[in-house]
Design brief:
With 217 residues, the chain is α/β, with parallel strands linked by helices. It has two domains: 120 residues, Response regulator (Rossmann fold), CATH 3.40.50.2300; 70 residues, Arc Repressor Mutant, subunit A, CATH 1.10.10. The protein contains ten helices and five strands, in the order βαβαβαβαβαααααα. Helix 4 links the parallel strand 4 and strand 5. Helix 2 packs parallel to helix 3, helix 3 runs parallel beside helix 4 and helix 8 crosses helix 9. The longest helix has 15 residues.
Amino acid sequence: MTRVLIVDDQDLVRHGLRMILELGGIEVVGEAADGARAVAACTELSPDVVLMDIRMPGMDGVEATTRITESSDARVIALTTFDVDQHVVDMLRAGAVGFLLKDVTSDSLLDAVRRAAAGDPVVAPAVMARMMDHFSARPPAALRLPPGYGDLSEREREILALIGAGRSNTEIAQDLFISMATVKTHVRHIFAKLDLRDRAQAVVVARDAGLEIPDRP
């Protein structure tokens, strides 16, 4: 059974999430009201998934996520009341596997927790679209090249930029006039060279690297 730790500074939010998860057959092993307690609880309880609020007094969700992902195999899902903001991007950099809005439906919450426990990313396509809108409305970020970026070929950087623009593999193949198999091979190499888990992380890396993000058609 999947084991979950709930982290939020609001009692009602924690209790509501606990009720949904337990009714759905998922074990809630503990709760924490701030980041420091979350880190300690992870060490003590070894959850499979952590539902992590971002903005909390004391140690916030970003710092707590960094510490948890560096010291355990727990998969962190960020919880936010905002569609997209810089804190969400920071959570992805810190190692979160995705994020959910706090008004998520019961079925979507249960599905996200199960997918995270199975090792899958949990950023929904609609949320990815909002990330694109967020990035396009802001000036380019300061150059922040990840380890392995220098090993990317020119074509791989081009494809990384297209991933950053929210393009699917099918759209990338159409844009570059190459086969789907070729796109998948390039994407696999990009993820391996940059140690990326999923496309959400790739979006953040593309932005950090200052890649020119093409306008979506």
